[in-house]
Amino acid sequence: MFYSKEEFKENFSMRLEQQEQPVTLQTAYSILAGMVREFVKRDWNETNHFYQNEQRKQLYYFSIEFLIGRMLGQNLMNLTIYELVNEGLGELGYDLAELEEQEPEPGLGNGGLGRLAACFMDSLASLQMPGHGCGIRYRGGLFSQVLKDGFQTEHPTDWINDSAGWDIRREDLATYIPFFGEVQPEHGQRFKASLTNAEWVKAVPYDMPIVGAYGKTVNTLRLWQAELPEQHLLPKADVETYKQHVVAISDRLYPDDSTEEGKILRLKQQYFLCSASLQTILKNRDFPVSALPKHVAIQINDTHPALAIPELMRLLLDGEGLSWEEAWGITTHTISYTNHTILEEAMEKWDSSMLEQLLPRIYMIIQEIDRRFKEKCHQENLDSEAKKKLSIIEDGIVKMATLAVVGSYKVNGVAKLHTEILKMREMKELNEHFPHKFHNKTNGITHRRWLMKANPELSSLITSVIGNEWTKDPVKLHQLNEFVQDPVFLGDFKSVKQQKKNQLTEYLEKNQTIKIDPESIFDMHIKRFHGYKRQLMNIFHIQMLYNRIKEDSAYRPYPRTFFFGGKAAKSYRFAKQVIKLINTVAEKINNDPVASKHLHIVFVEDYNVSRAEKMFPAADISEQISTASKEASGTGNMKFMMNGAITLGTFDGANIEIVEQIGDDNAFIFGVTAQQVMQFEEEKTYHAREIIEKDREIGQLISELLSGKLSKGLENIDFIRSQIIDENDPYFVLKDLQHYARTHNRVLAVYEDTLAWQEMSAVNIAQSGIFSSDRTIQQYSDEVWDLEKIYSR
Ligand code: H2P
Question: Per CATH, is 447-671+737-771 categorized as 3.30.420.40?
Fold first, then answer.
């Protein structure tokens, strides 16, 4: 432990001297991380003891992804020793920022869903609430993205091997997970059974400390690793193949599930996570099992952990010997579910036969849940369509979202519009059946990572005018409203923004050898690649601007740099072609002597949390241009807003609530509304071809695309072509394109009025506090989990 700079320096130097090898930056990083781990240990132990002694209700957040990002800097900050360590290291000739860069990036998530889980962890600990994460310790995490000739290529990562190990192996808590086998019903009154001839997998937890602000509360992120069980549980033959199957469970996030084998692996991962976490919760309790809902809340993050419902039933029925009614009562008062998307492809469905083979007892329980639920619905006067919607198993398919709703006591969407769409359309029948289950919890982001840590310059500026209360209660950022017309404050804000743009420019020049004009407008579209997120519309628009520059010598717009960043799922061919298209257009424009003075495209390779931390603070414009109704919430929109970037977006997800906060004048909104989109979809009245035929500019763009002129080097644009033409542009790219282009023109006009632009930025920051995940977590706690803060410590 160290309490002063001098103590820190002494301790750090002593450890350096003990090194036998020459000290590299990597060793210096490891030493520092080790010291921080020790620092955290005492509070971690104390928090755990407190939870045990006081018997506080605990929340467990089950998630297949936790996109936590690097831990060193955030931990130092939350422990309030960042400055002390920074100065101390400086005096010893080290640069803390450089050491932070040595930390391997754990890519345990792929986008907003996983990052949300990480923000929630930070907020729970910072609000001093007993809330922990349960996930999988993937050795590889998501692939790292390398661009080759503009194409995305995927490369395995191994963050664990490179890691400084924030987590601690808990062999004492290891548990065993059964797959396959035969169910032996116990013939009696109860729905009890046992499983024979199962294949066992050992689950070993690795606990990672989640340090709350001011350090006092340290919660736990428990990540499970799959291992070979002890000798007596091994199969008699072919242990090698068995071993490969076991290791695969925690090897990779999102294994390729286009094959049957891949699907089985995903299902195994999901069950592995649920079973291991639930078994441990039950095993280590010191209260009667009937009191579970009073002591434990379990939140399932999307349907990936929905097997928690039948698994908890299994443990209560077969392990605890409860009756069906008792077990069901406990389960449906303990588990609650968050839905994150209405996209059909993301609503998980499993083949009954596969589930039955891999998890026979679980399948039997799901069948019984379905049977009983159908029986109940039968008593209501429902038409056959409604009955279909209310079935969990239908035509040999298990619908996980329906299972999740039926087995939870609360169900929420992640922004107001999304929740309304769930209630009124996607889950209409379920909502009518369970009228009090559905509620909204608009997402949030932790202001500690996304403002205080990512943008210390802006944080200091804010504190210099309104004091530092906002760091504890971010809604107090409101107080900035008094300064949004103050020219001195706005001038200072402009300098900070420029500083962040310069830093990003330097970083990218160094790491990706890209030259950027830091004086240009920084327009950013950074998120997972997906059709509905419409990166395609963005690049189409840039190509249109290029055509205008070429055709009209008087058209010379204000210089803009368009940033793209994000990965496409490995098997998502369309999204991968969009990445290639962006890079092809980039090459042409960036090398054009005239156009490149006005337009510049930067594709930030291998976009991840650390890169995101450098990008959000440097943005002027936040591209949030999803097809209305498709983006459940979005959280990048909130990170941009908090850093003073202005939203250019559609009326979708949380964009709507952002505009509610700042007013129409402080964002640029365009495009068809969710209602219009849903109407087009229902009535089939949208025809992309008509736009191609009638709009000269769009017609030209599409023919350039089809002729291969636009896509030089990309011989095969068949997926883009077929989506726009054959599939009639399902994400309404062409429908919104001209409105998007006109809105960009409005953006440019305002940008040139510097003061007006800065005022808009300042209003955005001032109104962003409500989008802190502290607010979201407080609402979950008040309305769903019923947690108590640890004020007494
Ligand atoms: C998803 C939704 C987002 C939402 C996020 C967190 C699945 O994230 O699409 O709209 O904000 O969950 O609730 P993403 O697309 O980034 O993978």
Answer: no
